[in-house]
Every structure is written in C-alpha cells, then in structure tokens.
Amino acid sequence: MKQKLVEVILQAVTMSTDTGVSLPSYEEDQGSKLIRKAKEAPFVPIGMAGFAAIVAYGLYKLKSRGNTKMSLHLIHMRVAAQGFVVGAMTIGMGYSMYREFWAKPKP
C-alpha cells in the first residue's frame, strides 16, 4: 500500500515537470515576442520610452535645479513621468477602441 502511494506521487511529480510538451508560445524568442506585443498595443512601448526619457531628463537636470529642494524636484519628475504614462495609456485605449469599434470592417 505504501509502495503504491509512493509510486503514484512520483508519477504525478514527473508528469507535472514534463518539459517535453512544446507549445508555440515557448518557441518564440524574446525579440519577436516584444515586436508582436508592440504591434498589439503600440502605446505601451511609447509610454515606457517617455517614462525613461523623463527620468533621464530629471537626472540630467538634478545638478542645475538651483535653489529648489531635492524632494520637490523629485516629486515634479515623478508627476511628469506618471502623467506621460497615463496619457499614453489613455491615447492607447482610445486608439484600441477606435480600431475595434469604428475602423473594423463591416461584414
């Protein structure tokens, strides 16, 4: 009885870790997956690039902030970066809705 239970558990463990199953999504490399996702939602990479650009600009301007406190400078940069991302997401949703509801060819 105990031996049978151990065999069943071992069989379940080996079945759950079987990597011989090949799915199409796992055959795709990172570059082609990124390109496919960017085509599906084009404003996500734009939002990420804008966020990175604002952060880089904020770091560049950190030395020449003048008499402004560090915390105030960082808050302004955070608000600008978040605003850009939210704006890109809003425009992306509008574009997605347009593509799905208005630009969709009628059957």
Automatic annotation (TrEMBL):
HIG1 domain sequence ranges: 15-107
GO cellular component, one term: mitochondrial inner membrane
Transmembrane segments: 41-60, 80-98
Keyword DNA damage set for record: no
Keywords: Membrane, Transmembrane, Transmembrane helix
GO biological process: cellular response to glucose starvation; cellular response to hypoxia; mitochondrial respirasome assembly; negative regulation of release of cytochrome c from mitochondria
Keyword Glycosyltransferase: no
Compartments reported by the entry: Mitochondrion membrane
InterPro entries the record matches: Hypoxia_induced_domain, RCF1
Protein name: HIG1 hypoxia inducible domain family member 1A
Organism: Macaca fascicularis
